[in-house]
Amino acid sequence: xxxxxxxxxxxxxxxxxxxxxxxxxxxxxxxxxxxxxxxxxxxxxxxxxxxxxxxxxxxxxxxxxxxxxxxxxxxxxxxxxxxxxxxxxxxxxxxxxxxxxxxxxxxxxxxxxxxxxxxxxxxxxxxxxxxxxxxxxxxxxxxxxxxxxxxxxxxxxxxxxxxxxxxxxxxxxxxxxxxxxxxxxxxxxxxxxxxxxxxxxxxxxxxxxxxxxxxxxxxxxxxxxxxxxxxxxxxxxxxxxxxxxxxxxxxxxxxxxxxxxxxxxxxxxxxxxxxxxxxxxxxxxxxxxxxxxxxxxxxxxxxxxxxxxxxxxxxxxxxxxxxxxxxxxxxxxxxxxxxxxxxxxxxxxxxxxxxxxxxxxxxxxxxxxxxxxxxxxxxxxxxxxxxxxxxxxxxxxxxxxxxxxxxxxxxxx
Length: 413
Prior knowledge:
Elements: E1 2-6, H1 8-15, E2 23-27, H2 31-36, E3 40-41, E4 48-50, E5 57-60, E6 62-66, E7 74-78, H3 84-89, E8 99-100, E9 106-107, H4 112-118, E10 120-121, H5 133-145, E11 151-152, H6 154-165, H7 174-185, H8 190-200, H9 202-206, H10 208-211, H11 228-242, H12 246-254, H13 273-287, H14 292-309, H15 316-325, H16 332-347, H17 358-371, H18 375-380, H19 385-405
Parallel strand pairs: 2-5, 10-11
Antiparallel strand pairs: 1-2, 1-8, 3-4, 4-5, 6-7, 8-9
């Protein structure tokens, strides 16, 4: 029985890139041999075990055979005669098909080390095309390592495009698409994930509401980049600069979906795109089974991002309605994510990348004014029930009038 470190830990160790998880492959062993040594079985589809002390994953060396469409359409074979090279051959990319033995020696039968040096994301074998999840994984690795200069090898991108054309990605289950999208949004360059999916045609299959934005023009005086799809990518770049929040980055990705539904006769204006976008945001979130917090923020940003941009023009009554709609009094963290999403939208325009966004601080200050109202003072005046809420709102609006008067209105940027 021989044990090898495999996959991401080997790759990132050679790259000098931080990693925390270690995965192991065991060659020449049976499930009974591992359980006898105290390993805990956890795999449902094939034998995977947790080490009794480190809780790291140990998988028996295996081969696989395509038996049906999609991610789940495989049968797996494990036996004591399956070799390490056979196990590595079934992996997606050459940089993920390397191993290290117990003496620290590199085992690299498919040229992963050279592809690391060449900064290429290249598939190991034609079997890559059997698993549609790999289209998403390659796009995610492209987003992770873009800042290091990595690109998808031309032949791998061609294969990904063929998989899309053959309908393989249409068999992806929504939960897996969301899992890969969420992970990609947390990478250093999430825009590259979208770029890569679009380059192979998968974006139109998986996120058609986003793909539709490319080619839709906007008014050049407000959006020098003109193209709405490009604006979305620029905004996503800014979101990645401003916050690690994947909730905010997801909201930015969907914030202008309504512009994709604007009748062409109205281009390049998009009056009412905020409301048009809500149904599209809901459609995406339902299709991908998006968590409620993500969906709620995406909806808020789609509906109210132009309110944020015009913050210093809003009347106190409108400001108060905005805070209530955003649930800002009870969920200050979500309100902050909303502000950062709107700032990313404002900066996601050619030539505006370094422009200040004072609207966010203005709204933060306005919310603090409302929060400064002491409910006990309202209650001491004898107000209860519905009358209490009305009196509280009157006092909040009074404070907002004072706040607005103390700030120069100017022109929003």
